[in-house]
From TrEMBL:
Residues 623-832 form the ABC-2 type transporter transmembrane domain. This is Uncharacterized protein. GO terms for cellular component: membrane. It is found in: Membrane. Pfam families: ABC2_membrane, ABC2_membrane_7, UDPGT. Residues 528-620 form the ABC transporter family G domain.
Length: 883
């Protein structure tokens, strides 16, 4: 019987090679009868970098057979001074004849079941296709980076600018919105040769038999779901099966050169050491190394720091040729002596996996290379993310904002990081609540990673939605062959448990359904991948796509809806699942109602759709009636707030009444009355600002419902006024009674009624004012500032502090624009109009019993430029403010 084999084709970079070798080991643990052949390309720089690693792996794993391809010589113009990706792509392109020859040679003795390429090696896909060998891509980075890689042609087609010049947020499916400048460095410059290489590679992925990605589902669930659903490729390009088989990391190791640092860690307290290591290619300038050293020293924390020689140009670069550094030549004077005992600086290399898994290590300052990220997760060590090259800036965004296992190291525009920032981040990671939260999250993912690495872990193939069958299927890496046994047979216990879980979920849905029916309530549920049996319990289904309604009705009429649009449900699928597969191809309800005389003119069609008049479903009376009932329900639900406002009005009225009790009409009484009225206005106008967040929160609902034709804007305003008129009148009466009687204002019932009217209008005007500002403010914080500033300005220019005659002419317009002015004038006219002919202040000569009236109520009004005839004019102006 012919032996079977799988051929692996890694990139020459050491990190990519290590991941590919770990993949080979993993395959052998599942299928020990296979032989794994690995094609080795000599790197265009640091040519001996992988030799010792390959020798040790080959000795320990005889089933891993390494084939060294001939060395490729590149011209000097392709030196890796600017980036290391271009020479690698060129070497791999020139490698094709040797790859072809190697595959033919292997096939003489083995039946090759799969050819697995690193994503850098996509130029080898035509060779495997020609030889009829199933081809797979191995993506050594995470699923988020894979999504961006698959989405790259889409980004390329929607802009003709370089990503570094766009300065926009990119919305890659399943990925946190990311700045264009944070995309992988090799693709930032559109005119670079390496950009073209990545473009061509991304176009090859859909042509493969599958994509293997070094991640696990609980680490990146959202982006994996987006990839499986086919959202990262254009509509006409199917997504191949995607296999998350990670985390693939090297074993602990740690012997030889690493013995010194591991021995030092043994003497350190648990979780006390910060480990700093920046990958196999990262270098820092002398200035940057000094800043790191100062930051570590000032932080006071224990540290283990791997240091390499700085690059020749004294800037951040790539480690192309390397020798052990002379530490004292670029570290601060006395640094090693001052930190001796609590810090250890290691030259060039340390056994990273062994260090991260040491009990003494509590934090990791990393360049965000994906291998380092997975090693840190498997060790449960939180990260300070300091990206240097390749896709590491992209990884930082994912780690900090999406996965939440890292905090960012913030650099300047030129990439330089100050000592204060190093000190700050190290301290926050080790001591702060945020650091503890990140540490807990990392520990949780560590458990998930160990579960994914367990021998009994099942690899699941996920087929994306655009394919005819949108279900998960169990599969092995090699091409499926007829066999009576599945690759990963589910146990009977698992099957029974899933049936019990399904029955439990159906009972829960039915219980919620009965609650909705009996109590006339609406319940919103979020269900992850509900089965068809669960969905069949739902009365009506609303399907949305691209912001429009596609279908709204019962489940039973869904198949007829599909038939009416020319779609037939396949026998192996139910109507709802098939609809989810073709959702993007179905027309929306709103688009079919819009007609155009030129259907082939999309611009004209869009303009007519925009101009389409909203058709309201109910009359204005019906809208007002429905809104009136709804508003009163809202008031009842928030009755605690309304009751608080009522009690507030009563208490403030009683307190003011006791302070100004029996105020009198003498000179002191006049001054006190002015203060009473001014405070009344301030209290009534400022107390309504607490409704600002309510209006702002309701605004989105209001805009959505009015634009959807549910009710008119005028109906909303009329109903709002009708509901709050009686409530605010009640507040006005409660406040007026307590103040009016205790203070001893004019005893006429007409003046009391006018006083209540003014207070009522002030409350209406204040609510209207807040509602107006809430329609302009984007949020509560932005709305509070203009409310405070305007109310303060109205009070200042009301005439209470500065009379109209003493105001600068260029500020006089604010006096007439102030709401306080007309309310204060109305209250003064009401009180002193009642006392217009009554003498308030008498003058009595010392030697005579005769008295002379000095001030009457009319004099008080005249001094402020007021007269009785303005009584209703002020009311009209206040009503104008309200409207």
């Amino acid at each position: 019987m012919e032996a079977t084999a799988i051929v692996l084709y890694p990139s020459p970079l050491i990190g990519h090679l290590v991941s590919m070798v770990e993949l080979g080991k993993l395959i052998l643990t599942r299928h020990p009868s296979l032989c794994i052949h690995i094609l080795i390309t000599t790197p265009p720089y640091r040519a001996n970098d992988t030799d010792s690693y390959i020798t040790s792996v080959s000795a320990a794993n005889p089933s891993l057979i390494f084939h060294h391809l001939p060395t490729i010589s590149l011209p000097p113009s392709l030196s890796p001074s600017r980036n290391h990706e271009t020479p690698i792509f060129e070497v791999l392109l020139l490698n094709n004849p040797y790859v072809h020859q190697a595959l033919l040679s292997i096939s003489h003795n083995f039946s090759i079941k799969a050819f697995v390429m690193d994503f850098f090696c996509s130029v080898g896909l035509p060779i495997a296709t020609e030889l009829n060998i199933p081809s797979y891509f191995f993506f050594t980075s995470g699923a988020a980076n894979l999504a961006s890689f698959l989405y790259l042609p889409t980004i390329h087609n929607i802009t003709d600018k370089s990503l570094k010049d766009l300065n926009i947020l990119l919305n890659i499916p399943g990925v946190q919105p990311i700045l264009s400048s944070d995309m992988p460095k090799p693709i930032l410059e559109r005119n670079n040769k390496v950009y073209e290489h990545f473009q061509e590679s991304s176009k090859q992925f859909p042509k493969s038999a599958g994509i293997i990605v070094n991640t696990f589902e609980s680490l990146e669930p959202r982006v994996l779901r987006a990839i499986w659903d086919g959202l990262c490729l254009t509509e006409n390009v199917p997504t191949p099966p995607v296999y998350p088989i990670g985390p693939l990391i090297v074993s602990h190791g740690g012997g030889g050169r690493g013995a010194e640092c591991l021995k030092w860690l043994d003497s350190q307290p648990s979780g006390s050491v910060v480990f700093l290591c920046f990958g196999s290619l990262g270098l820092f300038s002398k200035e940057q190394l000094k800043e790191i050293a100062i930051g570590l020293e000032n932080s006071g924390h224990r540290f283990l720091w791997v240091v390499r020689n700085p690059p020749a140009q004294n800037q951040i670069g790539l480690a192309i040729k390397e020798s052990d550094p002379e530490l004292k030549s670029f570290l601060p004077d006395g640094f090693l002596d001052r930190t001796k005992g609590r810090g250890l600086v290691v030259k060039s290399w340390a056994p990273q996996v062994a260090v991260l898994n040491h009990n003494s290590v509590g934090g990791f300052v990393s360049h965000c290379g994906w291998n380092s990220v997975l090693e840190s997760v498997c060790a449960g060590v939180p990260i300070v993310a300091w990206p240097l090259y390749a896709e590491q800036r992209f990884n930082r965004v994912v780690l900090v904002e999406e996965i939440k296992i890292a905090m960012p190291m913030n650099e300047s525009e030129d990439g330089f990081v100050r000592a204060a920032e190093v000190e700050k981040r190290v301290t926050e990671l080790m001591d702060s609540e945020e650091g503890e939260s990140i540490r807990k999250r990392t520990k949780d993912l560590q458990n998930d990673a160990h579960a994914a690495l367990a021998p009994a872990h099942t690899f699941v193939q996920h087929r994306p939605r655009p394919r005819p069958i949108g279900r998960r299927k169990q599969a092995c890496l090699n091409r499926p062959e007829p066999s009576p046994r599945p690759c990963c047979p589910p146990s009977r216990r698992t099957h029974l448990r899933s049936r019990q879980h399904l029955r439990f979920q159906r009972n829960r849905i039915q219980t919620v359904n009965s609650i909705c029916t009996s109590r006339h309530r609406t319940v919103t549920l979020s269900i992850h991948q509900p089965s068809f049996k669960i969905l069949s319990t739902v009365d009506r289904i609303l399907l949305l796509s691209r912001g429009s309604i596609v279908h709204h009705g019962t489940l039973s009429c869904l198949e007829a809806f599909l038939l009416s649009h020319g779609f037939t449900v396949p026998p192996q699928l139910n109507a709802l699942e098939y609809t989810m597969e073709i959702l993007n191809r179905l027309p929306s309800i709103t688009s079919t109602t819009t007609t155009s005389s030129h259907p082939n003119d999309p611009m004209k069609h869009d303009k007519q759709a925009i101009r389409q008049v909203i058709r309201y479903k109910s009359s204005r009376i019906e809208e007002i009636s429905a809104l009136y009932n709804q508003f009163w329900k809202i008031i009842y639900r928030t009755r605690q707030l309304l009751l608080t406002n009522t009690l507030e009005a009563l208490l403030v009225g009683l307190i003011l009444g006791t302070i100004y009790i029996n105020i009198g009409v003498d000179k002191q009484g006049i001054e006190k009355l002015f203060g009473l009225f001014a405070f009344t206005l301030t209290f009534l106008l400022s107390s309504t600002t607490e409704t600002l967040p309510i209006f702002i929160n309701e605004r989105q609902i209001f805009l959505r419902e009015t634009s959807g034709g549910i009710y008119r804007l005028s109906s909303y305003l009329i109903t709002n006024t009708l509901v709050f008129l009686p409530y605010l009148l009640t507040i006005a009466i409660i406040y007026s009674v307590s103040v009016y009687l205790l203070v001893g204002l004019c005893g006429s019932w007409q003046t009391f009624a006018y006083f209540v009217l003014v207070i009522w209008i002030i409350l209406l005007m204040a609510n209207s004012f807040v509602l107006f500002l809430s329609s302009l403010a984007p949020n509560y914080i932005a709305g509070t500032s203009p409310v405070t500033i305007l109310l303060g300005g109205f009070f200042l220019f009301s005439g209470y502090f500065i009379s109209q005659h003493n105001m600068p002419k260029y500020w006089l317009f604010m006096h007439f624009f102030s709401m306080y002015k007309y309310a204060l004038d109305a209250l003064l006219i009401n009180e002193y109009g009642c006392l217009v002919s009554k003498c308030l202040i008498w003058y009595q000569e010392s030697k005579s019993d005769s008295r002379v009236c000095m001030v009457t109520g009319g004099d008080v009004l005249q001094k402020r430029g007021l007269h009785e005839g303005q009584r209703w004019t002020d009311i009209q102006i206040l009503l104008g403010f309200f409207v």
